[in-house]
Write a structure and sequence with these properties.
single chain; 336 residues; alpha/beta; four-stranded antiparallel beta sheet; 10 strands; globular
Length: 336
């Protein structure tokens, strides 16, 4: 006897809703793991950038006998300058061939300035013109090695909303300077007299007109910060450009330039009238220029003078962080 096919049984609405709910729960469980894995990959890429820049500085010293200065020929510093020629130069332009950017190095005119900004009262004579020399185009070139993939801030410097004459940050008319998430460890000076030697045992490995060597890390190359990470956006001041120097664009002080000191200090200074400071713990923009921090959870990455890269917690003791920041302070550094 031939048996007729019975009608297929369809899913009921309740069953469909149960399946959708189960899928939703699974997605909710998997999403944090996926985000965590993505951040781990971004953090690894960020670490590789710092490693590449660190090795470039070591190779630079091997080739030229010393490390590049954080800044040279600053027309942007405050006070009577003791430099004759205004260049507003960043040491990164000098090191370009050592991290596979030799083409840009060949296009850069080291006898001409990188930006035309000159602080009131500064007596240096600006050299050349950054636009006609080609320097403005060079320093407006975004380089992958200078940007952390975890930071989605604006990668180029634009005119400030506050209108302050201090923060004119264009390298030249029609150009926007490219920012960096990584910069030299400095004391964060803005005064013309505050050169590298000015700070004595409190100085960092780099500074304005510095001529340091890895050997100047008397506290030990594995106990001295060489490069620090920062964010592309800040509440007060400006994030650093990789290719030139300006007011408050002088490197990164590993202990911070505001109050309180430390890594990932998000709230801005109370006197800042042109920006709304976030509540404590809100991430995205660091409170002060030249301060260390990142959009990685709970800390930031630093390169030490031995070339290694370390992730340092934002909860580190400030005295330990200061000891790591100085290159010849003579402090004893324990675990961190």
């Amino acid at each position: 006897m031939r048996v007729s096919k019975s009608a297929r049984r369809a899913f009921t609405l309740v069953e469909l809703l149960v399946v959708i709910a189960i899928i939703g729960v699974l997605v909710a469980l998997l999403l944090p793991a996926v985000q965590s894995a993505r951040e781990a990959a971004r953090r690894m890429s960020c670490s590789n950038n710092l490693k590449q820049l660190s090795l470039a500085l070591h190779n630079y010293q091997d080739a030229l006998g010393k490390l590049p200065p954080a800044g040279l020929g600053l027309a942007s510093c405050s006070g009577t300058s003791n430099e004759t020629y205004g260049l507003n130069a960043s040491g990164w332009t000098m090191a370009l061939p050592f991290f596979e950017a030799g083409t840009l190095h060949d296009k850069y005119d080291f006898k001409s300035c990188a930006s035309t900004f000159q602080q009131s009262g500064n007596t240096t004579t600006l050299q050349g013109d950054p636009v006609s020399s080609g320097n403005a185009a060079v320093v407006s070139t975004r380089l992958k090695v200078f940007n952390c993939p975890s930071d989605n801030g604006t990668p180029f410097l634009e005119e400030g909303k506050d209108g302050s004459s201090h923060y004119i940050i264009k390298p030249g008319s029609g150009f926007k300077g490219a920012k960096t998430n990584y910069d030299f460890a400095t004391n964060g000076p803005t005064g013309c007299s505050q050169t590298w030697d000015y700070y004595g045992t409190n100085r960092r490995l780099f500074g304005n007109r510095s001529s340091s060597r890895i050997e100047d890390a008397k506290d030990g190359s594995s106990n001295t910060i060489m490069l620090a990470e920062t964010t592309l956006e800040v509440w007060d001041g400006r994030a650093p450009a990789w290719g030139y120097r300006g007011w408050v664009q002088v490197g990164i002080n590993p202990t911070g330039t505001g109050s309180p000191k430390g890594i990932n200090v998000w709230p801005c200074c109370s006197w800042n009238s042109w920006a709304t400071s976030p509540a404590p713990g809100v991430r995205g923009k660091l409170g002060e220029w030249g301060s260390p921090g990142s959009l990685h959870p709970s800390g930031a990455q630093f390169s030490l003078a031995d070339g290694s890269v370390r992730f340092i917690s934002q909860n580190i003791d400030i005295n330990t962080l200061e000891a790591l920041s100085t290159c010849s302070g003579g402090e004893t550094i324990g675990e961190y």
